[in-house]
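Lab notebook, design round three. We kept the backbone fixed and only want residue identities now. Task for the bench partner: fill in a sequence for the structure below.
Input structure tokens:
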């Protein structure tokens, strides 16, 4: 009896929704499912690589990335060939170019730069761009490896192409092996605020907050998420 009442309650809630609300609800559910799937793929490639090569801190990417900006391409190629390609499921396409040249002229209404990434189209149409992040000084000389970045678009090149809506960022911390880390120990309310602000700034890496927020909420896009 209780199950029947719960089912009737859910049906009642759905029936009370307007068409835009129903569409938004559907889009959120699709986004949740695809985002969690990609997270699982990324996490799986890291765990399998750890079995093969040990902790990420010993993956010797720093020695290449630290030589300078021109070596970042080599480090990216090295990373995907050894720590991604062997474990990722079947893909439709793979290319090495800037996200802009791939088709992302604008994200959040702002023009993308020419930073190159190894770009994959997964079998469900999800786009994943992977690149090495290094500290570069004002003279273009390299420093230590910062992180490995992942830009995930859960609906391919389709609009809206907005961070926190269909595009999400992950980053692999080479010291800890984590890919979703709330290193600032932000509260949920602070994550909501920073996620919302991410669409108003051209500082690319602010957009990790939306991914952290959804992960914090158990891979669910809650009603108060800044959709």
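Proposed sequence:
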């Amino acid at each position: 009896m209780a199950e029947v009442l719960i089912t009737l309650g859910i049906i009642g809630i759905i029936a009370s929704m307007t068409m835009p609300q129903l569409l938004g609800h559907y889009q959120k559910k699709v986004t949740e499912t695809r985002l969690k799937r990609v997270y699982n793929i990324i996490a799986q490639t890291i765990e399998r690589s750890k079995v093969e090569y040990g902790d990420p801190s010993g993956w010797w990417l720093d020695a290449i990335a630290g030589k300078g900006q021109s070596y970042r391409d080599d480090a990216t190629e090295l990373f995907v060939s050894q720590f991604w390609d062997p474990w990722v499921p079947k893909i439709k396409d793979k290319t090495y170019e800037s996200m802009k040249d791939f088709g992302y002229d604008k994200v959040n209404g702002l023009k993308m730069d020419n930073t190159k990434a190894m770009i994959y189209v997964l079998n469900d149409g999800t786009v994943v761009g992977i690149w090495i992040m290094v500290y570069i000084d004002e003279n273009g000389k390299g420093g230590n490896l910062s992180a490995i970045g992942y830009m995930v678009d859960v609906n391919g090149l389709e609009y809206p192409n907005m961070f926190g809506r269909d595009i999400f960022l992950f980053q692999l911390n080479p010291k800890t092996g984590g890919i979703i880390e709330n290193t600032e120990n932000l509260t949920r309310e602070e994550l909501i605020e920073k996620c919302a602000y991410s669409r108003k700034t051209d500082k690319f890496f602010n957009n990790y907050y939306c991914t952290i927020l959804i992960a914090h909420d158990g891979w669910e896009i809650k009603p108060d998420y800044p959709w």
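Keep this in mind before ordering anything: The longest helix spans residues 19-53.
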